[in-house]
Amino acid sequence: KKKTRYHFILAQLNQQHQNYNKAISYYDKVIKVNPKYEMVFNSKINKAQCFQENSEYSKKVEEELLKMTKDEKNKEYLDQIYYVIAKMNLSQKDTVSAINNFTLSTEKSKYNDDQKSKSFLDLGRIFYLKSNYLSASEFYDSTITFMDSNHKEYNQVKEKQVLLAELAMYLNTITLEDSLQRLAKMSEAELNKTINEIIIAEQKKELEKQELARQKSQHMFENNRYGERENNFGQKTSGGKWYFYNPATLSFGHSEFIKKWGKRKNEDNWRRSDKKISIEMERDSTTLNQENVENESITNKKDPKYYKDRVPLTKEKLEESNLNIIEAYFQASLIYKDYLNENKKAINMLSSIIKKYPKNKSHCPIAHYNLYKMYFENNKPKKAEECKKMLLKNFPESKYSKLLYQPDYLTNIEQKR
């Protein structure tokens, strides 16, 4: 037993130092002795990881791992097996298979929070690298749900999760308000039909939530360590333009984000790295106790009035909806440029403000100004000059225009203060 344990430790040490052949040799010695199954299993899993860099054997190793998934003894270890397979897929640049197997890992993981967080984190990283930030946001949310707060990567992951959550809020706001405005253009019959379809989707979502709660209760009964966490997995962003059939945004809660979060000032300074990004998880309004039926309809997602009240049918509501969209475009542009190094996406956000709301005096001037600075900093003088001319022509009295033709404008403002 001591010798087997000694071989296992030597295998791990060699694996850590990337001496894979030696590590494999020691793992084989452990497996040959056939000690307790947990050590055999870990030896097989670790051995498979040693083959990740060796494409000659990877197919054979993957077949052995898939064979392990059929073994009843590995029922509790399926999450780890699929995770290793997914890692192998990544090393072979097979991202589609990696996503499928990481997903299987999260689904098979019942009580192993550490493994669950690892699988979600890898999924988040895949979508982050693909610049699919909405999907990445959901996987980072799930990672933080299951990751131990003492984990060495926790703070770094948490920081990214908060950033992506804020970006997702703004992008979802744009999609939501756009969908609400589309509803406003429908006939009453079309509107009622669409709202009924939304309610059916909401009812389906609630049934799925109840089933998830039932499964959790069962798992808690079997193993109290699972706790009362809520698994947010399963609501992948569809990426569609229609808000209400997008499971990731069906909560319908972002319509009031301006009221909830407040409006940030349109700052002269293009960078805002000194600001802390904060995000607050919105409570599920359906769980609140209502004092009467009238108030209940405000938060009851199965009541048509809940949706009709949010449709911008009046001039005032439409203006408010447009302001929400404009602000969301602007804030998203800041995150894209200053935190994600996505200048192209930032330019698209700012250009959308100018194209869709050319007469807006609160955001168009700074949108022109920020575009001017971005083009200038990226050695695109012609584009920068176009933005400058548009700003001076359309908003000559704006402080952003004055910043361009009065170099001492900010200094004079400070002196007057």
TrEMBL record:
What span is annotated as the signal peptide, if there is one? none
Coiled-coil portions: 184-220
Q: Does the keyword Coiled coil apply?
A: yes
Q: What SUPFAM superfamilies does this protein map onto?
A: TPR-like
Keyword terms? Coiled coil
| InterPro entries hit by this protein | TPR-like_helical_dom_sf, TPR_rpt
- Name of the protein this chain belongs to: Outer membrane lipoprotein BamD-like domain-containing protein
